[in-house]
Amino acid sequence: MSKTALTILIIIVLIVVGYFIWGGGPAKTEEPNLETVSQEMPVEGSNTPEMIVEAGKNIQEFDISGAPFKFSIKEIRVKQGDTVRINFTNNEGLHDWVIDEFAAKTKQLKAGESETVEFVADKKGEFEYYCSVGTHRAQGMVGNLIVE
């Protein structure tokens, strides 16, 4: 093999090795979906549900914040029979958190205010939660509670 061919081969090997070391080739992992939170696959950070056992009941606790036309969590998954505790904080504007099928709702909160609502997820299915202020729901301030 000639010196030129050997030199080219060494350069190619170094480029490939460098790509995998610094370029993040196939070894990269996919980022988790931060908008979906469930008991089976908790997401790290402030939106991580906390399983609490209190007086013999399983409580799934979620921290959700509201801002103009969006909630910080778009989907929540729990098991039928779980008690669901929502700690809702309004970051901006005027918002609330409502889920009709479980008769659960917060009052309308100003920016910086928080309220906690708790209910038992006693029926299976997908249920929409939303902000009832003005046209916020129609403008996309919604999410889904999935009870398995």
From TrEMBL:
It holds the Pfam family Cupredoxin_1. Keywords: Copper, Membrane, Metal-binding, Transmembrane, Transmembrane helix. GO terms for molecular function: metal ion binding. It comes from the Bacteria. Residues 60-142 form the EfeO-type cupredoxin-like domain. The keyword Metal-binding applies. PANTHER family: AURACYANIN-B, COPPER-RESISTANT CUPROPROTEIN COPI. This is EfeO-type cupredoxin-like domain-containing protein. It comes from Candidatus Zambryskibacteria bacterium RIFCSPLOWO2_01_FULL_45_21.
